[in-house]
Amino acid sequence: MKTIHVIRSQRVVTPDGVKAASVHIRNGKITGVREYDDLPSGATVHDARESVVMPGLVDTHVHINEPGRTDWEGFSTATRAAAAGGVTTIIEMPLNSLPATTTASAYREKVAAAAGKLSVDVGFWGGVVPGNTDQLAPLWEAGVFGFKCFLVPSGVDDFPGVAESDLRDALPALAALGAPLLAHAEIPGPIEEAAKKSAKDNASPSPRKYAAWLAARPRAAEDQAIALLTGLSGEFKTHIHIVHVSSSDALPQLRASKSQGLAITSETCPHYLTFSSEEIADGAT
């Protein structure tokens, strides 16, 4: 017996804009988005009235801390919050749990910790850290969606950053698997130089000011990291995704890499956006 449900609303998000429409669902699958009053005989109608009806959002950059740091946030609260915001699928980052998701056994431990606590669909990223290249295939086969790395210290001792030599070990394995690498693209050199300059100048601006963060994380750290990653992507034919791009100076090289056919993608994040010195002078703190 076929079960037909119709969800209708005055505000349905469609490819043609927001409009009154009805979403038809047969045996758990959406079969069409039709006119507001198109109600098949025998269908169960759910009238959302003025509430927005839209596709579920997918958030591929979520940090949950279970197991090990559940008091920061665990699967139960994180996925309930996602559902409340219209996010129906999240992909969780590998570095904040104990153990970090850098081995197949750690991945299985994380999956077990999530059992019975999920309010939305959840997937997982694995991690690339120094010395775990032998774990990449087992992690991929176990079900991770891809891999994340940092080119600077991540802030988590169990998830150290990688150097170019580590990437040269890992990227051929990832290319063979067809697995993407997500990279936090900063290299240590310019950051270390900025710290030395600050100490030499005896400069200690308020850590609450955006100018202090900008001075501590110069654009060159990201620009040079992206140049390294785009070069390695071309060399090893590996899909590399640059997470939270913040430096506008890096955009031309990203565009050039894509125009050359390299498997380079990127995302921006408002928490990481950098302002010009003029904008800071005008009060962007």
Summarize this structure briefly.
The chain is of the alpha/beta class and 285 residues long. 33% of the residues lie in helices and 25% in strands. The chain has a domain at 4-53: Urease, subunit C, domain 1 (Roll).
What does this structure look like?
The protein is an alpha/beta fold and 285 residues long. Helices cover 33% and strands 25% of the residues. Strands 1, 2, 3, 4 and 5 form a five-stranded mixed beta sheet that branches. A five-stranded parallel beta sheet has the order 9-10-11-12-13, with helices on one face. A three-stranded parallel beta sheet has the order 6-7-8, with helices on one face. The longest helix is centred in the last third of the chain and has 18 residues, at 219-236. Mean pLDDT is 90; it is low at 271-285.
